């Protein structure tokens, strides 16, 4: 067993980070233990996939991996730091929002909320499509079926997220029948897989399609493109004005009003989203 303590730039909010990971966790892809503040999943490094256990505290994250070699730990640390946004300096963001009528009180209440991203860009895109217009629980169910049908076995009894090529190889009909998706949702996910495969995507973080390429896909609208800009690309200044939860936290203002209001939050609009989501969850 090799382990390393990952100290963030500043502090972190372990309960918020665990909630974010938990609401997006997928059976067989993750082991999520909320009471223990522990989350386990597979992370790929040059030597292969590793089952990594993370334990969260306000002063950092304990990373442990049973099968990691000494040369793997640096790579695992880099992946986890990027995924969990551990290196961002939140002090500047706190100062930027401090005098804002809406965000100031949220920041002062929970100053250490970080923007959790994705380890795998295709995971970000596929699970976002699977979660469109359904509850979080239904999205996780679809995700579990998808991972079971198209993923591969990994270490620690976990699965590795499917590759775009695995989806393309079996055709859109198999995707629809196996996961239980509507025709339109299956077609959108299949198109996304084709586009990722055409970009020679290798399972890394980030989205290889730009916004125009995303919006050109049938079934991908502004909400999906904005959300992937924020969580799929870890852009600190993305905003999702069409998000119903964020607008509810803003007293149910319109999409246009939300977009206009958010201009004053640049260049940290993604962090505004994080705080709006967290405030709605706490209400």
TrEMBL record:
Record-level Gene Ontology MF annotations: alkylated DNA binding; DNA-3-methyladenine glycosylase activity; DNA-7-methylguanine glycosylase activity
Residue span, HhH-GPD domain: 130-281
GO CC entries: cytoplasm; protein-DNA complex
Domain DNA-3-methyladenine glycosylase AlkA N-terminal: 3-120
SMART domains: AlkA_N, ENDO3c
Pfam families reported in the protein's UniProt record: AlkA_N, HhH-GPD
Biological processes, Gene Ontology terms: base-excision repair, AP site formation; DNA alkylation repair
Keyword tags: DNA damage, DNA repair
Top class in the EC scheme: hydrolase
Keyword DNA repair: yes
Keyword Cytoplasm part of the UniProt annotation: no
InterPro entries: AlkA_N, AlkA_N_sf, Alkylbase_DNA_Glycosylase/TA, DNA_glycosylase, HhH-GPD_domain, HhH_base_excis_C
Annotated catalysed reactions: Hydrolysis of alkylated DNA, releasing 3-methyladenine, 3-methylguanine, 7-methylguanine and 7-methyladenine
EC number(s) reported in the record: 3.2.2.21
Protein name: DNA-3-methyladenine glycosylase II
Protein's organism: Paeniglutamicibacter gangotriensis
């Amino acid at each position: 067993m090799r382990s390393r303590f990952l100290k963030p730039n500043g502090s972190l909010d372990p309960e918020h980070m665990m909630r974010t990971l938990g609401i997006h966790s997928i059976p067989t892809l993750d082991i999520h233990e909320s009471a223990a503040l522990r989350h386990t999943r597979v992370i790929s490094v040059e030597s292969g996939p590793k089952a990594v256990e993370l334990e969260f505290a306000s002063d950092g994250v304990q990373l442990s991996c049973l099968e990691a070699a000494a040369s793997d730990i640096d790579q695992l640390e880099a992946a986890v730091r990027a995924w969990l946004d551990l290196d961002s300096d939140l002090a500047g963001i706190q100062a930027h929002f401090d005098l804002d009528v809406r965000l100031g009180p949220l920041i002062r209440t929970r100053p250490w909320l970080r923007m959790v991203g994705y380890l795998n860009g295709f995971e970000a895109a596929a699970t976002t499509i699977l979660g469109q217009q359904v509850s979080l629980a239904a999205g996780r169910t679809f995700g579990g079926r998808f991972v079971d049908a198209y993923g591969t076995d990994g270490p620690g009894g976990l699965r590795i997220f499917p590759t775009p090529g695995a989806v393309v190889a079996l055709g859109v009909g198999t995707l629809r029948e196996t996961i239980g998706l509507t025709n339109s949702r299956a077609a959108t996910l299949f198109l996304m897989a084709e586009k990722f495969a055409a970009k020679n995507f290798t399972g890394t973080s980030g989205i290889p399609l730009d916004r125009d390429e995303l919006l050109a896909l049938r079934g991908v609208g502004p909400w999906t493109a904005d959300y992937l800009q924020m969580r799929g690309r870890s852009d600190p200044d993305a905003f999702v004005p069409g998000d119903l939860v964020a607008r509810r936290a803003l007293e149910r203002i319109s999409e246009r009003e939300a977009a206009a209001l958010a201009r004053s939050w640049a260049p940290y609009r993604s962090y505004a989203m994080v705080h709006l989501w967290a405030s709605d969850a706490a209400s």
